[in-house]
Amino acid sequence: MSSESKPWAGRFTQATDAFVEAFTASVGFDQRLARHDIQGSIAHATMLARIGVLSQKDLHTIVGGLETILAEIERGDFFWSVELEDVHMNIEARLTDRIGEAGKKLHTGRSRNDQVATDIRLYLRDEIDGLCQQLATLRAALIDLAEREADTILPGFTHLQVAQPVSFGHHLMAWHEMLARDQDRLRDCRKRLNVMPLGAAALAGTTFPLDRHYTAELLGFDRPAANSLDAVSDRDFAIEFTACASLVMMHLSRFSEELILWTSAQFAFVDLPDAFCTGSSIMPQKKNPDVPELVRGKAGRVFGHLVGLLTLMKSQPLAYNKDNQEDKEPLFDTLDTLKACLRAYTDMVPHLAPNREAMRLAALKGYATATDLADYLVRKGIAFRDAHEVVGKAVRLGIDSGRDLSQLTLDELKALSPRIEADVFGILTLEGSLQARDHFGGTAPNQVRQAVARARAQLAEEAQP
Ligand code: ARG
């Protein structure tokens, strides 16, 4: 195609170099924005007709043309041309092909700079709504599993060393808390995103008396952007979104790490369904937790996109610069990655099969009730630091004789502290240890069930429009 056919070819005397054309084109990836580009164009045209810049007849023709083009695109019948650079010029050129003169009027009072900024916001807004749905579904699955496993006991860890027994349901509700914050952050990000750049035109606004409030209303934006220079150049929302996405991925990578540890023969706390694992081409016995491993690995690329976008925006002078075209691929890849990882977790969580016996044995092995014994001594009038010392000796005795604290005899315990009586054995059991942590946010199964009820109520409330 010669330079004459480009919408901006008027002042050029030379055709674009073929490499430069390919190098500067974004249509290969920004065609994803087509639906939202058309949505924005229809609103813009509707507003132009309302202020009398377009006739009703032209508006009608434009809207009909754009709807037909959208159908073509969705059927996969649209020819995307690299010569036409990007999604915006491809659609506009096709519109003029189809409807003639009226098509040439659509770009009145608008620039691709405010157009693209609007398109990405519209697109990302829908995607955020979808992600919130996915997060809510995953949270509901975790809540269900936590309820079922409220009485299941596994060792809680600090430093990856057995620390104190906890309810498996409590552990799962910790995961839920992370995702609830993630969803809240996305909703918050959406608020700042939901501002309309359209009307800023290239950078300074336009000479037409645009009714930007009306266009914003048509597109469901809370308001038009307050400064035209900022409107076309701001990509904070993309960075903020990628930061939110990074936190979700960081959380998923933590869940993944635990699943990878737990499915190993050394822990054997949970089993993943075969459908979520793969085998080894050489070692016949292997069942590898590939899905959690990939999720853990994919966190890296999303963090990379966050740094990439920050670096893209760093030092950019006002207003629009072509650099901004580089915002799309990291954003799209972040979305694709996050959606796939959430999908993997949503499918996997309901099928996590806990090995309750292995969890219990592990909790029994690590002297997990040592703190309970210390607290018991405090209740019997011994200062906590002295109690700590006594229990340390009890643990030593257990290690030396290969026994758990609950397997020491009353005489042995009394030799360490005469305050210890027969009632001590009630608090040395795993169940006793859990039951004793019976306050808001604690691991007592009764508290876990209350946390489950609160989380369900919160989910239901968030689902209200
Ligand atoms: N494809 C461009 C982008 O994504 C659209 C805006 C182009 N504006 C311009 N002045 N060249 O940023």
What are the main properties of this structure?
elongated; Ribonucleotide Reductase Protein R1, domain 1; mainly alpha; two-stranded antiparallel ribbon; 6 strands; 3 domains; 61% helix; two-stranded parallel ribbon; Fumarase C, Chain A, domain 2; 465 residues; Fumarase C, Chain B, domain 1; binds arginine
Please state the structural category: mainly alpha
Instruction: Please give the largest β-sheet.
Output: 2 strands, antiparallel
Which architecture of the largest domain would the CATH scheme give at its second level? Up-down Bundle
Distance between the termini: 49 Å
Total beta strands:
6
Averaged pLDDT, please?
96
Order of helices and strands: HHHHHHEEHEHEHHEHHEHHHHHHH
Strand content: under 5%
Number of domains: 3
Radius of gyration: 31 Å
At the fourth level of CATH, the homologous superfamily of the largest domain is: Fumarase/aspartase (Central domain)
GO biological process, one term: L-arginine biosynthetic process via ornithine
Main location: cytoplasm
Domain Fumarate lyase N-terminal: 10-304
GO molecular function, one term: argininosuccinate lyase activity
